[in-house]
Amino acid sequence: GAGVSQSPSNKVTEKGKDVELRCDPISGHTALYWYRQSLGQGLEFLIYFQGNSAPDKSGLPSDRFSAERTGGSVSTLTIQRTQQEDSAVYLCASSQWTGSRETQYFGPGTRLLVL
Amino acid sequence: SQQGEEDPQALSIQEGENATMNCSYKTSINNLQWYRQNSGRGLVHLILIRSNEREKHSGRLRVTLDTSKKSSSLLITASRAADTASYFCATLPVNDYKLSFGAGTTVTVRA
């Protein structure tokens, strides 16, 4: 079946604008994760969804970041009033069951550039 | 914060040679996973090794885990140009669900 998909692939925006990033997980996967990867760095955990609820939002870097998931499927990550330091690749992953004791499947990412 | 740290940061080898990279971590883990990333895009899961396992194989990949030293190694045998990528270890701490990634090892395989 289809893997995790993300859109857009690339996004260039001006400082101060809002952006929405979308993630379509693998069908039937309960858990969904958002990560951020800055240039040359490892992945930084942002938020985790179990179904539609987000029990852990501790990784969100500021209150400009928010995420939601509807229908236990699609998730959107919204960044308000973008700043240049928000430039990064935003990766989404899903796994079949709650928690990551098994494999997380990653999407191709959205490369965000804030000018 | 990143728990896993890969070593070396970068590795350049000739096609056909073996590539070895290491990962060290700080806290007790449930499992450790290795991922590959091409050109800064999505990650591909390579192998998962649980805390009660010491060695796993998958094709040309061999992973070892030493929980007493809190370290793991990934060996790629008979490397190919297509193995050129960044390799990340990710640890799942005990009683947690968040994977913690290291900064990665960039492997370049020269033809």
SSE inventory with pairings:
The complex is a heterodimer of chains A (115) and B (111).
Chain A: E1 5-7, E2 10-13, E3 19-24, E4 31-37, E5 43-50, E6 53-56, E7 65-69, E8 75-79, E9 88-95, E10 105-106, E11 110-114
Parallel strand pairs in A: 2-11
Antiparallel strand pairs in A: 1-3, 3-8, 4-5, 4-9, 5-6, 7-8, 9-10, 9-11
Chain B: E1 5-7, E2 10-14, E3 19-24, E4 29-37, E5 43-50, E6 55-58, E7 61-66, E8 71-76, E9 85-93, E10 100-101, E11 105-110
Parallel strand pairs in B: 2-11
Antiparallel strand pairs in B: 1-3, 3-8, 4-5, 4-9, 6-7, 7-8, 9-10, 9-11
What would you note in describing this structure?
The complex is a heterodimer of chains A (115) and B (111). Chain A is an all-beta fold. Chain A is built from no helices and eleven strands. In chain A, strands 2, 4, 5, 6, 9, 10 and 11 form a seven-stranded mixed beta sheet that branches. In chain A, strands 1-3-8-7 form a four-stranded antiparallel beta sheet, with no helix packed on it. Chain A starts with a strand and ends with a strand. Helices cover 0% and strands 58% of the residues of chain B. Chain B is built from no helices and eleven strands. In chain B, the strands form two sheets. In chain B, strands 2, 4, 5, 9, 10 and 11 form a six-stranded mixed beta sheet that branches. Chain B is globular. Chain B starts with a strand and ends with a strand. Classes of the chains: A mainly beta (115), B mainly beta (111). Chains A and B meet through strand 4, strand 5, strand 9 and strand 10 of A and strand 4, strand 5, strand 9 and strand 10 of B.
